[in-house]
Design brief:
five-stranded mixed beta sheet, elongated, eight-stranded mixed beta sheet, alpha/beta, CPQ, 15 helices, lysosome, 16 strands, secreted, Glucose Oxidase, domain 1, 474 residues, 22% strand, Peptidase_M28, Aminopeptidase
């Protein structure tokens, strides 16, 4: 039978020293328990089993689709079998999107096919497609600078160059900005359609999809992403100085549907009302099977919570949330699954959310820890460093301030957030492509993720550290 480290630590201290040393004994015992959880998690089998079954049974899980719904129901049962309590599915309305059929080609004097993917939530083309001259821009800013109406009857094409691979993934932001804003800007300039070089770091002939943004409740025109070699080809042809015409076709469409959050707890035994949220998302894009984005995240957080429970009950509750529909924009900013979860909380419930983190960057090894604002130094940071350093995770002085899209709503509402930073050097080779499949996950690196999450969360869950109080004044 498990005896809480808090109680076992206190029992080991003599009555004569209780006034002087219980906190030190408790801290040492909690650290030892966190190290044991970490080491046990290095042999974890749950994470790989979960992501294998998820991607094999359900394949791609577009937001609001039948496969996302079925995967949510299955995941709830999976969590119950692992011993999670209070497991339930939280439904919320969604505008879904289906890709349909798509094609692109250069026509005229140099006819040849192009490999493209329609951008998420883009409308389809008129029947028979769109055929028009391409106007190339080297940046979103160049497109924004074009006079309104100057692209009437033409196709806007933004080629900002290949994404630079970085461990942090920082090269993605400038390109995803083009994807989000580009179609609306192109429409303002009078264009019939929008195409862009894929937001990816690979050189394969696989386009990277991803959502674009609504403006005033609509996506104004069809948008497409070109694979990197096709973007090179089109840009070279344009550079020769002769007009280049492209034909685009898409049957994409939206529909009303429902998405779901899957929620389950490993309850605490002393302060169960205090919640630590471990987040990831259930949905994926339709081209691959969503193994790295984000089946791996759910695998890591579920396995970490299970590893903690096997060590024994902690003071606080560890809650795993598999959020629905992270990948897509909506006509109104509801926050998708993260927003639905926030709206379900009373002010008192929200105040009892003491810590949150999100795993949504694949399965690459964790290399750095970012703690909430104000917690970069001190006893807790030292303890976290002691637990994580042996598995190659370094404490940083940079605070985590936002989390990801799923936990973002509760973080903006005041919940302290942490980050376990993963090696993303090759993540954007696969991201949002047909190559996001199970074989790309390294089981050893996946287990290292579980160990990092389990060790850190044990420290938080079995302590009374108040991260809200550690935040310095704004």
């Amino acid at each position: 039978m498990f005896v809480s480290v808090r109680r076992s630590a206190l029992a080991a201290v003599s009555l004569l020293s209780l006034c002087a040393a219980p906190a030190l004994a408790q801290d040492a015992a909690t650290i030892r328990a966190a190290e044991q959880v970490r080491d046990a998690a290095l042999n974890d089998t749950v994470a790989m089993d979960y992501v294998t079954q998820l991607t094999t049974r359900f394949g791609p899980r577009p937001a609001g689709s039948a496969s996302e719904t079925a995967a949510a129901q299955w995941a709830a049962g999976y969590m119950r079998e692992l011993g999670f309590k209070n497991v339930h599915i939280q439904a919320f309305p969604l505008v879904g999107w289906e890709r349909g059929e798509e094609s692109a080609s250069i026509v005229g004097a140099n006819p040849q096919p192009l490999v493209v993917a329609a951008l998420g939530h883009s409308p389809g083309t008129p029947a028979g497609g769109i055929e028009a001259e391409v106007v190339r821009f080297a940046s979103l800013e160049d497109l924004q600078a074009a006079p309104d109406g100057s692209l009437a009857g033409k196709i806007a094409y933004v080629d900002a160059g290949q994404m630079v691979p970085m461990q942090s993934g920082a090269g993605y932001g400038p390109l995803t900005r083009i994807r989000g804003a580009g179609p609306a800007v192109a429409a303002q300039k009078g264009a019939l359609a929008f195409i862009m070089r894929s937001a990816g770091s690979d050189e394969h002939r696989m386009p990277h999809t991803g959502t674009t943004r609504y403006v005033d409740g609509v996506v104004p025109l069809p948008g497409f992403a070109l694979s990197a070699p096709d973007a090179d080809q089109l840009s070279r042809l344009v550079s020769y100085g002769e007009p280049v015409r492209v034909r685009l076709s898409s049957t994409a469409h939206t529909y009303e549907t429902t998405s779901h959050n899957v929620i389950g707890d490993m309850p605490g035994d002393e302060r169960p009302e205090e919640i630590i949220v471990l987040g990831s998302h259930m949905d994926s894009w339709d081209l691959g099977t969503g193994a790295i984005d984000d089946g791996a995240g759910g695998a890591i957080t579920i396995a970490a919570a299970k590893a903690i429970a096997e060590q024994g009950r902690t003071a606080r509750t560890v809650r795993v949330i598999l959020y629905g529909s992270e990948e897509v924009a909506q006509p109104t900013d509801t926050g998708n699954g993260g927003g639905a979860y926030l709206r379900s909380l009373s002010p008192e419930d929200l105040a009892n959310h003491v810590f949150a983190g999100e795993s949504d960057f694949g399965a690459g090894r964790v290399y750095a820890l970012q703690l909430p604002v104000g917690a970069q130094t001190g006893a807790f940071a030292d303890a976290a460093n002691r637990v994580l350093y042996p598995i190659g995770v370094l404490r940083t002085n940079t605070p985590e301030t936002s989390g990801g899209a799923d936990i973002g709503p509760i973080v903006r509402a005041g919940v302290p957030v942490f980050g376990l930073q993963q090696d993303g050097l090759r993540y954007f080779d696969l991201h949002h492509t047909a190559d996001d499949t199970l074989d790309k996950i390294d089981p050893v690196q996946l287990r290292q993720n579980v160990a990092a999450w389990a060790g850190l969360i044990w420290l938080v869950a079995d302590s009374d550290v108040d991260f809200r109080a550690m935040r310095p004044a704004e």
